[in-house]
Design brief:
The chain is mainly alpha-helical. The chain has helices at 13-27, 32-43, 52-63, 67-86, 94-101, 115-127, 131-144, 147-153, 168-171, 179-216, 219-226, 237-248, 257-268, 274-286, 291-307, 320-334, 345-354, 356-369, 374-388, 397-414. α10 (179-216) runs antiparallel to α11, α12 crosses α20 (397-414) and α18 runs parallel beside α20.
Amino acid sequence: MTTWTDSEIRPTLLEERQLYNHLLYFVQLESPTQMIDRFRNLFMGSGRYQDPQIWYALEKLAMNKYADRYFKFILNRCCHILINRWHLNPQLQWAVSKLIGLFENLPNSSRAGSQSHKRIWELLHSFRLTEQYLTLRRLSQVMTQTPLALSSGAKQVANLIQRYPYLYEHCLLSEDSSYEHQQTVRQIRSRIQLRFELDLSRYVTHQVRYAQVMRRGSDGASETILQSLKNPTLLSDRDLGAVLKHFVGKVQDRKTYWDFAQSFLVHSNYTPSYKQFKEDLYEYLTASMDPAYGKRHFNEQLYQYLKNTYPHNDFQKPNEFLIIRTCSRLLNFLVVDNPVRPNHFTFVDLTTNLGETVTTGLLLKIVLVSHKIKPSLEKRFAILFNHYESSHREGVPWLVKSLENMNIALSLHFGSADVSCLNQIM
């Protein structure tokens, strides 16, 4: 249920409940086509709705003098009542795009036959400018598109949202998202994440089998294997192979990213002060970085940033809370810090000079130190995604490659993707 601040006059919730209960009742009885027609007639129809009591409730809510503030929340909730029902059945998910598509062709409020219709239609037009509508559009894309279709046909960054489940909770939820909607998004995230991890595992197994057959020189068998599975990412087969080896294999001194993190965490248990922890963290992050790039300016900037991070805590022993805050601040510096005016020069500079894979590895190092900041990393990538979602993919290749790299890195280290067969050919 919508919440209100003390500075606002709370509208009558009776009408709000009537509206929600009405939709909840019929969405269980009617087909998606019938419900979309019902939704259209209720909000966008030019005549009186068939249920006078529900029409009166909607009319009262829309005509309230505070409707400009709260009607977007009510309309968003009405949409999600239908979506929360349909997402449970894959055969019904097509209806989400049809529902959201209603807002693309709204009636002209100047042609309304009554003040009530005029006011409701004005509020519908205003709704299209809100965060709530934007998250609905993204959710529609997630639920109605397939990764294979996206790999070839998507032109704008926005059309790639389904590919990256780690962005969902930050791109598909708005300030008023109900508990039910949050659960819906988490369920969709789990389902699509699992599908990607399974596809990635199968693809890697397929590639390893193909490599083994090629070594034995069996052309007929290799041709059959080659045709069986497609690359589940937007990276080329060659690039995907390099990314997988980077995140699974040895990065430096015969250690993987996981090995490095574990060694650092064991050492940190005996670190006497926060100041020393920051020194060690600096060494940990720069150990596998290209020395030429680091010496130009990055290493000094990183060192000074850490030095100036919570200096009043320098002489206390580091604890979990302080480590989490430090890692979160680091993500501000390395990725982006402000969702309104995203300053991400450092991130672009890193990807330009070190490449998307090494840059992702640097961020992975931080998350492996404190798993609890994984949502913070996801949020920062969501800020970048939102900032560039109207851009064409070809215009921001660094971002698309970074999103793909992060999807793979998180799946390998925090998901269920099994690429252990790579050890047979590495």
